[in-house]
Amino acid sequence: MSGASETQISRWPHWSVPAFHWIMAVLMVAAFTIGQIMEDTPRDQRLEIMGYHALVGISVLVLFFPRIWAVARLSRPHETDDPRIIRILARVAHGILYLVMVGLPITGLIAMTTIGRNFPVAGLFELPNFGRIEWLHEAAEDVHEFFVPILVSLVVLHVVAALWHHIMRHDDVLARYVPWLRNRSS
Ligand code: HEM
Ligand code: HEM
Question: What whole-number distance in Å separates Cα of residue 51 and Cα of residue 121?
Answer without folding.
Answer: 4
